[in-house]
């Protein structure tokens, strides 16, 4: 994103916020470096264990130290991935606050936007330039981050010490959801910045709204695609399955949840379920095959909300400055 490739209000926007944009790129580069380090560290630990002729769960006393070193290295690699995932989780909040405050509300608050509008730049074009530059950065950096994250996560730590795809921080760190969340933050920041027109207040309101939107999507995520219900005895599920409600079904189809009996009769949960009429076990799941449908539905919701927020911003700006 060089200023030489931009013209008019786009060039002005990139120049005004060049330090923030370069800082964002530097942070993205640092995140990529951390993820690459995690992958290489994990691969190196696995190779060292294999070279010693040991396995992680080996009972051979001579392998104890090798297995311990391997576990320590894998835990470190996993923590690097988890820390990056936390950054991906708060990314839309930070992007929205940046757009709402320094990019829009500050100019509207100080009146510097009037200079641009006297240079044959319409209010709509001015606003488009203000959001196009951070949007271009988001559409370039976030997909790259999500690809590198997926590559780094899908190695040793994800198998030895699993972090599953359905965990809140993992789900928003790879695939297409991270980019959709970033655009949602940008859209909400745009609307709030135009509506509030006070830098600090706009940033605070955007953090609140975007954080609430991300939290609400996380809460509703399991209902964005139909669940699969399994029934039978002694149901065994692997780690790639997102397990939700579980319990027993009565002969009439009524659901009895395990946690109800765990609280009422913790000394004999199964007998409690049987006494209440339970005849067969059930569990609601999202299998790994539901990953992409869930990603697509959530991304569609984010993009629709982002577009609506941007439309509101343009309508408000036009109404205030016809």
Short description:
This protein is of the alpha+beta class and 322 residues long. Helices cover 69% and strands 8% of the residues. The longest helix has 47 residues.
State the share of residues found in helices, binned by percent: 55-70%
Terminal CA distance: 32 Å
Ranges where pLDDT stays below 50 over 5 or more residues in a row are none
Q: How many structural domains?
A: 2
Structure classification: alpha+beta
Q: What's the β-strand tally?
A: 4
Number of helices: 12
Mean pLDDT: 87
Strand content: 5-15%
Strand order in the sheet with the most strands: 1-4-2-3
Q: What is the string of helix and strand elements?
A: HHHHHHHHHEEEHHEH
Query: Could you describe the largest sheet, including whether it forms a barrel?
Result: 4 strands, antiparallel
Task: Categorize the overall geometry.
Answer: flat
What labels would you give this structure?
322 residues; 4 strands; alpha+beta; 12 helices; 2 domains
Layout of helices and strands, plus pairs?
Elements: H1 8-16, H2 18-51, H3 64-110, H4 113-117, H5 123-153, H6 156-160, H7 168-171, H8 177-196, H9 199-220, E1 228-232, E2 242-250, E3 255-257, H10 258-264, H11 269-275, E4 278-286, H12 291-320
Antiparallel strand pairs: 1-4, 2-3, 2-4
